[in-house]
From TrEMBL:
Pfam families: FAA_hydrolase, Rv2993c-like_N. InterPro entries: Fumarylacetoacetase-like_C, Fumarylacetoacetase_C_sf, Rv2993c-like_N. It comes from Actinorugispora endophytica. This is 2-keto-4-pentenoate hydratase/2-oxohepta-3-ene-1,7-dioic acid hydratase in catechol pathway. Keywords: Metal-binding. GO terms for biological process: carboxylic acid metabolic process. It comes from the Bacteria. The keyword Amino-acid biosynthesis does not apply.
Length: 265
């Protein structure tokens, strides 16, 4: 299933994405919260273009895994150093989360902002100290993420909170795909384009540490809550975007996430 969070008029809710034989896409409204209890179809249905898609979840925290693709480690060695024996973990605040087609604000404090397309894992239950072999039990589904980064601040600060934490620096969407197994999620093409030009073209098969290992590691020291998001790292090809440009992160079998870079009024 593809579960979206959307607004229509003054109402915000969740819905299932489907399509007809002619390729028209629809969202069928659900009652309840898919991560917190029983849901059912309400019978209300709308064309996808008539609603506004929102970030599919509002996580209490976004946990990010750095240096999880060898080619990305190599391209960023001058800023972030060599790879490490254990995963590099950092957090993005909940206030950094944005949705599909939401603007990404270029901060006045930075002179270089980069895109980083990533597979995002959505946690489905309260969990801690999850063994690798039980990781599948805590995954609700997958969505697309963009770990937007003020690269110059990352380099000067020597730690990544400010560079990664600006408002709008964590677009997520367009929906949650719940129909992928761990094995399927471990071999998905990840691409990022800027104004239609391909900048990143990789695969989750290139991850140094797979999804089960990442979940086990993070949950070994942190309780994960329903709706929390883990960004699993980015392949090589990250680079800058300028005001006015559009970034699209695409992950096969999940969807496309597009955001335009703007300045605040």
């Amino acid at each position: 299933m593809r579960i979206a969070r959307f607004s229509a008029g003054d109402e915000v809710g969740f819905g299932l994405i489907d399509s007809d034989d002619e390729g028209n896409r629809f969202v069928s409204r659900l009652s309840g919260h898919p991560l917190l209890g029983q849901i059912q179809l309400t019978g209300e249905r709308a064309r996808l273009e008539d609603v506004r898609l929102l970030s599919p979840v509002l996580p209490s925290k976004v946990v990010c895994i750095g240096k999880n693709y060898a080619d990305h480690v190599a391209e960023m060695r001058h800023i972030t150093g060599e790879g490490t024996a254990e995963p590099v973990v950092f957090l993005k605040p909940s206030t950094s989360v944005a949705g599909p087609d939401d603007p990404v604000f270029y901060p006045a404090l930075s002179s270089r902002v980069d895109f980083e397309g990533e597979l995002a894992v959505v946690i489905g239950r309260v969990c801690r100290e999850v063994p690798v072999e039980r990781a599948k039990d805590v995954v609700f589904g997958y969505t697309v993420g963009n770990d937007v980064t003020a690269r110059d601040l990352q380099q000067t600060d020597k730690q990544w909170t400010r560079a990664k934490g600006f408002d709008s620096f964590c677009p997520l969407g367009p929906w949650i795909e719940t129909g992928l197994s761990l094995e399927e999620a471990a071999d998905l093409r990840v691409t990022t384009t800027v104004d239609g030009e391909v900048r990143q073209d990789g695969s989750t098969a290139q991850m140094i540490r797979g999804i089960p290992e990442v979940i086990a590691y993070v949950s070994s020291f942190m309780t994960l809550l329903p709706g929390d998001v883990i960004l699993t790292g980015t392949p090589a090809g990250v680079g800058p975007v300028e005001v006015g440009q559009s970034m699209t992160v695409s992950i096969e079998r999940i969807g496309d996430l597009t955001n335009r870079v703007v300045t605040r009024d």
